[in-house]
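Deliverable D4.2, example record:
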Amino acid sequence: MGIIFAVLIAVGYFVCFGLVKEKLPFSERIKVIKGNKPFWGIIISMILLNFMAVFGGTFFSYYCMYNLQHPEWIASLVTIGGAVGIVAALFLVVPFTKKYEKRHLMLLGFALYIVASLLLILIGGYTGAVIYQIIQGAGNSFAFAGIWAAVPDMSDYGAWKNKVNSPGLVYSICMFVLKVVVGFASYGVGAILDATGSMRPSVWHRSKRSYAASAFPSASFLQFSASWPSPAPSF
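Output generated by the structure prediction step:
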């Protein structure tokens, strides 16, 4: 179902772009991403982050249902993670950005997600699930805040490098990637569960290590982010 929505979203975006007339031709506006390393860094980060969110949310639901055998815990545990994310966004993200760069904010978010996944595997049970939700809630807040706070920087970098200022196109591309990736990630997680036989409750009841797959996108991001360029110059 997710892949169907992704296709519909793609069609809608192309129809929108086809009907909108702008003074600057698209062939000129698209130059804003030419040689724009921060842009491609953010796009790859968005892909990994949203795969991580979809995989983690799906596997956590299965973990509660078949490992813990308490599906009624899902709503309360997810609420805990959401509440921690709100608190982190309100009181921790802004002070952190005053001392560190936005990429450090993203690195911290992805690192927290890996730690949360490992602790869930090692501790397990209701205690492990609560700890996981607390840590990953803070991690989501840091990662999402860092990525979207960096979008204006990569737009400014493209304007400085290519002498083309098109922030609307940059934001549109980011939103397009966001929506499409969620659709493909939804399809992908279902395909993985089906291919590995994890759709059978007995498989999940025997082993909780299937959940570790949700940490893979964040681990990939940590390796990738080390080569990021410095922030865009101010002008």
